[in-house]
Structure formats: structure tokens, C-alpha cells
Write a structure and sequence with these properties.
By secondary structure, this protein is an alpha/beta fold. The protein is built from 12 helices and 11 strands. The structure holds pyridoxal-5'-phosphate.
């Protein structure tokens, strides 16, 4: 019995000519902020249906620079969910802002608008909404609510490249959308990468300055809070080659999720609420009662699994928080029960079958 990995690039990378993308950069002898980056920015903005994209070094930087670009800084309150892997919290902490956690919707595990309203009434500087597992949050409701309070919305789209609702794609709903191109993401580089997208020229201009020391013109520091966070030419060339396949890869991920949902319908487990275009199946996540035992059985049947994420942000020991255990019941229950199954575009049908059989056994 072979093991089904949680994720693998074998199978899809072979179908893309990445070598000539890399060679093209080597032949150009230009490695940082050149033609590949600007072309990728143009192509990715177009794909997302917005006018601007700014390439960055990774997704966490994207969140940080997005926060700075909407004017958030030292001491400002930023509202976000506590079940999304601490990435948003990292960005909030880096700028010296204060995270305000609200509970998530029990169905989608994304920011719940009712809980959000209560926090907005107390005053916040920005909202980060994470499209967790590739599932679009209730983002139009959140954007409308935010507009009522005149608060900018930052979408964390690191797991949701291409997810769409009503003809609009992830990152195009709020003020600014943040992406990671970490290798396991739906659009992944051969290393680290990130970007922000926006429809607002002033936000794009600010992030462009912040990603390179706050420079306006070369060696002229015009904006505070700047640093070095650039997407490099090789990664941009690779991403350009892979972007052409993103829709097909998302379709395959979604089809796998659909097979799982159909197979698991009778099981005592909760599964992803949508397999429509608003879910790009970055992670296929079940919620089960006895996770340790469940994962042990999967492991014995050669099926890898993981937990995204085991510790809610407000209970992370690195940043002791006023909110203790019990403050966010839905979030905490989710962290105790979620388990991610293999779901990636190169997965073979027989591997999907192996996962299904193992899960049926494990869930009994
Ligand atoms: C991966 C991820 C990030 C961070 O991306 P990096 O490129 O690793 O910094 C941010 N948010 C979410 C939801 C992610 O999954």
C-alpha cells in the first residue's frame, strides 16, 4: 500500500514548462523587479478582475503592507478571525496594532457578520477577512457592513486564488486582496512569493513604495514603514507559466472535494458546505469528533492528514491575549475537530478512492 500525501506537486509540475521560464530569466540577466514581475502583475490583476497587482515576497508581507496601505499602525484595532493560522495576526502584531478576534460562522468557519457588527460598533481601523480553505467568506455582507462604519476590508486570499461569486473573484470585493504563492497554494511558486491586488490606485501606489524601502524615486524615501519585500523575476516567470493552468487545477480540486462530499454524506462528520465556484478546495477539511483516533486509522491506511489549525490565535503562547479559553466557542470547537485530507490537482482517481475507503473506516 502506498501512502497518499496531503499535497504533492508531482503530476502537475510536469505538465508545465517551468524550465524555460527560469531559463528566460537567466538569459535576461535581470533578477529583481523587471519584465517578468510587471507582466505577472498585469496578468494576475486581469485574472482577478482588478486594475492593480503588486508582487511581494510572501503572503504575510502582503497582509502587513495591505494594513499599512489602509493607514493601520501602532495601537490600532484590527478585527479578524482566530482560526486562520495566525498569518493575519502576525501582520497585525508586526505593525504594532492590536488584534480583535471575533467568532466565526459555524458553517463556513469564516468571519460571522453578526459578531463583526458588535466589534465595529466599538471602533476598529481595519477588517481582515480570510477566505479559509478556499471558501469565500460572506464577503459582500462584510463589505456592506464595513462601508456602514467606513472601515476598510482586507481580504486574505492566500487559500482562495480564483474563488468567485457573482462573477467577482477573491480579492476584488474589499479594498485590497492579499495572496501568497507558497508552493502548496492553489497558485504556487518554486519558493516564496506574494502579492496584493486592488481597484484603488492610491493603495497600489502605497504598496509599491512600501515594498522597496518606502522609495518614491530611487534612493528617495517618501513613505515611512517601508522595507524590502519584492517578488523576484524567477518566481514571477514560474507563476506566469502556472497561472494559465489555475482554473483547470481548481476544477480538479473541486471535483475531488465533490467526490469526497458524496462519499461521506452518511458519515458522522461535517464537510465543506460548498463545492461551487466560491470554493477552490485549497484544503478539504472534515470536522470529526475523535480526531486523534480518526487520524490514526487514516495513517494506518496510508492516508496523510493534517490539522489547519490546531491552536486558535488568541490561545497562542507567543502572544498572551486577554481573551482566554472559552472566549470564541465556535473557533475553539473547530480547532479541536478539523482535519485536512489529501486534495490537490495531481491526485489520482485511485488515490481518491483510497482516501474515501480509509475515511469510511476511520469515521465509524
Ligand atoms: C499561507 C497563508 C498565508 C501566508 O503566506 P506566506 O506566503 O507563507 O507568508 C497567509 N494567510 C493564509 C490564510 C495562508 O494560508
Amino acid at each position: 500500500m502506498t501512502t497518499v500525501p496531503l499535497f504533492s506537486t508531482v503530476g502537475v509540475t510536469a505538465t508545465v514548462d517551468l524550465a524555460s521560464a527560469v531559463q528566460r530569466v537567466m538569459d535576461s540577466h535581470w533578477y529583481i523587479l523587471g519584465k517578468e514581475v510587471s507582466e505577472f502583475e498585469r496578468e494576475f490583476a486581469e485574472y482577478c478582475g482588478v486594475p492593480y497587482c503588486v508582487g511581494l515576497a510572501n503572503g504575510t508581507d502582503a497582509l502587513e503592507l495591505a494594513l499599512r496601505s489602509v493607514g493601520a499602525g501602532e495601537g490600532d484595532r484590527v478585527v479578524l478571525a482566530a482560526n486562520a493560522g495566525f498569518y493575519g495576526s502576525t501582520a497585525v502584531r508586526i505593525i504594532g496594532a492590536v488584534p480583535v478576534y471575533t467568532d466565526v460562522d459555524p458553517q463556513t468557519l469564516t468571519l460571522a457578520p453578526t459578531a463583526l457588527r458588535k466589534v465595529l460598533e466599538k471602533g476598529v481601523k481595519a477588517i481582515i477577512v480570510t477566505h479559509l480553505y478556499g471558501q469565500l467568506a460572506d464577503v459582500t455582507t462584510i463589505v456592506d457592513l464595513a462601508a456602514e462604519f467606513d472601515v476598510p476590508v482586507i481580504e486574505d486570499c492566500a487559500q482562495a486564488h480564483g474563488a468567485a461569486r457573482g462573477g467577482r473573484r477573491a480579492g476584488a470585493f474589499g479594498h485590497v486582496g492579499c495572496f501568497s504563492f507558497y508552493p502548496t497554494k492553489n497558485l504556487g511558486a518554486l519558493g516564496d512569493g506574494g502579492a496584493v491586488i486592488t481597484s484603488r490606485a492610491e493603495i497600489a501606489a502605497r504598496v509599491r513604495r512600501l515594498r522597496q524601502y518606502g522609495w518614491g524615486a530611487k534612493y528617495h524615501v517618501e513613505a515611512p514603514g517601508g522595507r524590502n519585500s519584492r517578488l523576484d523575476e524567477i518566481q514571477a516567470a514560474v507563476l506566469r507559466a502556472k497561472l494559465r493552468h489555475l482554473d483547470a487545477w481548481n476544477a480538479r480540486r473541486r471535483a475531488v472535494a465533490r467526490s469526497y462530499n458524496e462519499a461521506f454524506v452518511e458519515l458522522p462528520a461535517r464537510f465543506p458546505p460548498s463545492t461551487g465556484e466560491d470554493y477552490v478546495a485549497h484544503l478539504y477539511v472534515l470536522r470529526v469528533a475523535n480526531r486523534a483516533r480518526f487520524r490514526k486509522v487514516l495513517n494506518e491506511r496510508g492516508v496523510a492528514s493534517d490539522v489547519h489549525y490546531p491552536v486558535p490565535d488568541h490561545l497562542q503562547p507567543g502572544y498572551p491575549c486577554e481573551d482566554g479559553k472559552g472566549a470564541l466557542p465556535v473557533t475553539e470547537a473547530a480547532c479541536d475537530s478539523v482535519v485536512s485530507l489529501p486534495c490537490f490537482p495531481g491526485i489520482k482517481d485511485e488515490q481518491v478512492e483510497q482516501v474515501i475507503e480509509a475515511v469510511k473506516l476511520a469515521a465509524q
